[in-house]
């Protein structure tokens, strides 16, 4: 019975917040509906944008950029992070470079990338790549280095090759750390693409948000923010689910 109540309790605060939003907006407590339109009006605008295809086209553009940039950045981060975590020479060679560039925010690269690659589809994709690459790399390196050396020693004693030890022992044990990086950056990729589209790209959810701002359409702005929040939540929960599926049977 308790397990059945938990999902309901999770939705209860959200429901209370939405009801309070509707009541406060319609009661005139705030300075007019321009400041905060009722939730029902926001949902009506969400429906209108969906039916007319405006929201769908913007969402598809942003989603494509996120998937390409996040996949490429994550794969590169896992590959380079695995090499650094497994080979000390590679780690010593690349660590100073990674330490130099890692603190730079992904959006801090916008002016330079605008000059290097121009204002086109590659700009937000490259920013998402950068946003995903460094944290995933860092978590991969950390996960591999934290693997108990006794497991590696036992595998070597049993005659396992270096490649088999890496892929059958080390990487599976490092998966929780790797998934932590993936889960955190899955949401950050959406924040990055929205910011990039707001600054330099004429299509996508971020561009729609900026057009709404120029027209002073608070309802459309809130719709865009809701889409952003939902997609961050979906992506983060997707990787949390994948982690449970892949490591739930053996992770302590």
Automatic annotation (TrEMBL):
<keyword id="KW-0812">Transmembrane</keyword>
<feature type="transmembrane region" description="Helical">
    <location>
        <begin position="98"/>
        <end position="119"/>
    </location>
</feature>
<keyword id="KW-1003">Cell membrane</keyword>
<feature type="transmembrane region" description="Helical">
    <location>
        <begin position="66"/>
        <end position="86"/>
    </location>
</feature>
<keyword id="KW-0472">Membrane</keyword>
<keyword id="KW-0813">Transport</keyword>
<protein>
    <submittedName>
        <fullName>Binding-protein-dependent transport systems inner membrane component</fullName>
    </submittedName>
</protein>
<comment type="similarity">
    <text>Belongs to the binding-protein-dependent transport system permease family.</text>
</comment>
<feature type="transmembrane region" description="Helical">
    <location>
        <begin position="188"/>
        <end position="208"/>
    </location>
</feature>
<feature type="transmembrane region" description="Helical">
    <location>
        <begin position="165"/>
        <end position="182"/>
    </location>
</feature>
<feature type="transmembrane region" description="Helical">
    <location>
        <begin position="125"/>
        <end position="144"/>
    </location>
</feature>
<feature type="domain" description="ABC transmembrane type-1">
    <location>
        <begin position="55"/>
        <end position="239"/>
    </location>
</feature>
<keyword id="KW-1133">Transmembrane helix</keyword>
<dbReference type="Pfam" id="PF00528">
    <property type="entry name" value="BPD_transp_1"/>
</dbReference>
<dbReference type="GO" id="GO:0005886">
    <property type="term" value="C:plasma membrane"/>
</dbReference>
<feature type="transmembrane region" description="Helical">
    <location>
        <begin position="220"/>
        <end position="242"/>
    </location>
</feature>
<dbReference type="InterPro" id="IPR035906">
    <property type="entry name" value="MetI-like_sf"/>
</dbReference>
<dbReference type="GO" id="GO:0042918">
    <property type="term" value="P:alkanesulfonate transmembrane transport"/>
</dbReference>
<dbReference type="InterPro" id="IPR000515">
    <property type="entry name" value="MetI-like"/>
</dbReference>
């Amino acid at each position: 019975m308790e397990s059945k109540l938990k999902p309901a309790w999770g939705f209860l605060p959200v429901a209370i917040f939405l009801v309070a939003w509707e009541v406060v907006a319609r009661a005139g407590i705030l300075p007019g509906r321009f400041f905060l339109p009722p939730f029902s009006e926001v949902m009506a605008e969400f429906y209108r944008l969906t039916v007319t295809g405006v929201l769908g086209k913007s969402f598809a553009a942003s989603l494509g950029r996120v998937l390409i940039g996040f996949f490429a950045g994550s794969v590169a981060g896992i590959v380079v992070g695995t090499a650094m975590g497994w080979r000390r020479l590679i780690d010593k060679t690349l660590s100073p470079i990674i330490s130099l560039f890692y603190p730079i925010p992904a959006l801090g690269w916008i002016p330079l990338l605008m000059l290097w690659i121009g204002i086109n589809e590659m700009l937000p994709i490259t920013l998402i790549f950068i946003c995903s690459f460094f944290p995933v790399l860092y978590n991969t390196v950390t996960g591999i280095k934290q693997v108990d050396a006794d497991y590696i020693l036992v595998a070597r004693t049993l005659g396992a090759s270096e490649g088999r030890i890496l892929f059958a022992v080390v990487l599976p044990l490092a998966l929780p750390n790797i998934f932590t990086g993936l889960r955190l950056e899955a949401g950050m990729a959406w924040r990055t693409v929205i910011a990039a589209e707001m600054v330099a790209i004429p299509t996508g959810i971020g561009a729609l948000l900026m057009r709404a701002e120029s027209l002073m359409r608070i309802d459309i702005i809130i719709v865009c923010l809701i889409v952003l929040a939902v997609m961050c939540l979906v992506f983060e929960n997707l990787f949390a689910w994948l982690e449970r599926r892949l490591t739930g049977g053996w992770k302590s």
